[in-house]
Design a protein that fits this description.
Radius of gyration: 29 Å
Helix content: 25-40%
Number of helices: 16
Number of strands: 22
Distance between the termini: 45 Å
CATH topology of the largest domain: Spore Coat Polysaccharide Biosynthesis Protein SpsA, Chain A
CATH architecture of the largest domain: Alpha-Beta Complex
Strand content: 15-25%
Number of domains: 2
Shape: elongated
CATH class of the largest domain: Alpha Beta
């Protein structure tokens, strides 16, 4: 079997050696032939973007002249689009009698094992006509990423062979059928999950000088525009798709947000969809109570059901520690946040859980007081029950009542501010602001 590798390589002189290295090592074993197209796309020229490709061309013509089987460089006076560039490879792969075609762009980095794994998978699943590959596609920086699943591997000779690329890497066969009419499958992440550096601000390995130009390019090239936009105020790239799941690599993926009462904790967590732009949200009171109950302390969901005098009583400070312990022990491949109220936990978390970032949310006091008033007025149970029941001397009622006393809430704000200042923990004005700092 002969495998053709179609490589588009523009402005990638620094990263190309790393990209091509595993492919060179396997070139003879798997009978690879390399076609490389290197040139700026015409739309970038029309936009007035500087052509940054000369160093890449020099590298390809010298260091890799004996490795590359065909190097195509478009005339600078007659630059091509993405799909027009790819169409230049069709006759070469036809002449080379290539069986399997692998599309490789200069921002996709595979390991030797991943390349082997794909070839083994394809050989065992020849009922499919083409294959999609899951990619770990970085955005913003080199820690945030989303799952990108492009078509990448094709049985080239089927349906009369490839006739032309008509848009991006989409193509038609010589029998006039479009490739998506035929059978495909996704290759599992366990087999291959290459790194993809296409939507970062400073870590892209190919393309224009800045990400803003790439966004403008896609707005011109794609009928539905670009999936990202640049937030000049925040100085970062942002996804248009609020439902896009954005993950954070393990060492960055755990956060705890602590906040006083009435700072909108319940409103930020939707139990039907407990996500915020790819961040999984957990309500600390619920999770801590549940884990506490599971550990054999019969506390139930609300600690106030057990009076302080009861031998099984545990303060919320202790119950929340059960939740933090559980949260720290979990392993996820996505960003997550545990939200609850306990200012004294700030030093506890910082000293015992180095992998967890701590953030504090304190709303403006005027807004906070309005929320407090609304809660009291809206909640009939509290409005009438507190008046009567606070006369009781029981621990349950006293602890319940104090939570809704404005003076107590103000003293709690001061505790948060003082501890945050002492331990250099950032304070945000809303959960939205704190969560945006994670995304």
């Amino acid at each position: 079997m002969k495998i053709g590798v179609q490589i588009l390589a523009y402005n990638c002189a620094e990263s190309f050696p790393s990209l091509i290295e595993p492919w060179i090592k396997l070139k003879e074993e798997f009978n690879f032939v390399f076609w490389v197209g290197s040139g700026q796309f015409k739309i970038y020229q029309d936009m007035g973007c500087e052509d940054l490709n000369q160093d890449t061309i020099n590298l390809l013509k010298t260091e890799y002249k004996d490795i590359i089987d065909y190097l195509f460089i478009p005339n600078s006076e007659n630059l091509l689009s993405d799909h027009e560039m790819r169409s230049q490879s069709i006759s070469f792969f036809e002449e080379e009698d290539v069986d399997l075609l692998w599309i490789l762009d200069a921002d996709e980095f595979y390991t030797e094992d991943e390349i082997r794994g794909v070839i083994d998978f394809v050989k065992n699943r020849q009922d499919c006509d083409y294959y999609k590959i899951n990619m770990k596609s970085y955005m913003i920086d080199n820690k945030h990423w989303f799952n990108f699943i492009p078509m990448r591997v094709i049985w080239r000779k089927r349906f009369g062979g490839i006739r032309n690329y008509y848009f991006d890497n989409h193509y038609c066969y010589n029998d006039n059928s479009e490739y998506r009419c035929h059978k495909s499958c996704d290759i599992p992440k366990e087999v291959v999950f290459p790194l993809h550096y296409s939507w970062t601000q400073y870590h892209n390995t190919t393309g224009p000088k800045n990400i803003q130009d790439k966004i403008e390019y896609q707005k011109r090239y794609y009928s539905d525009g670009c999936g990202f936009y640049y937030d000049n105020k925040e100085d970062k790239i942002v996804s248009h798709d609020s439902n896009r799941e954005v993950f954070i690599d393990a060492e960055f993926n755990k956060n705890i947000i602590l906040s006083p009462q009435f700072c909108e904790q319940p409103s930020v967590i939707d139990y039907g969809n407990p996500w915020y732009h790819g961040i999984r949200l957990f309500w600390g009171e619920y999770e801590s109570s549940k884990r506490n109950y599971i550990k054999g302390i019969m506390m139930g969901v609300d600690s106030h059901f057990v009076p302080m005098s009861h031998p099984l009583y545990r303060s919320w400070e202790d119950i929340y520690k059960v939740g933090v312990e559980w949260y720290s022990s979990q392993k996820w491949n996505f960003a997550s946040v545990l939200i609850y109220n306990s200012p004294s936990h700030i030093p506890y978390i910082l000293n015992n859980y180095k992998d967890i970032q701590v953030k504090v949310v304190i709303m403006d006091e005027i807004v906070l007081k309005d929320r407090w008033k609304e809660k009291i007025e809206r909640d009939d149970i509290l409005k009438y029950r507190l008046v009567d029941l606070l006369k009781s001397e029981s621990d349950i009622i006293r602890s319940l009542g104090i939570c809704y006393d404005w003076k107590y809430l103000c003293s709690e704000l001061d505790i948060y501010r003082n501890i945050s200042k002492e331990y250099n923990v950032l304070i945000y004005g809303s959960f939205e602001e704190a969560l945006r700092s994670i995304v």
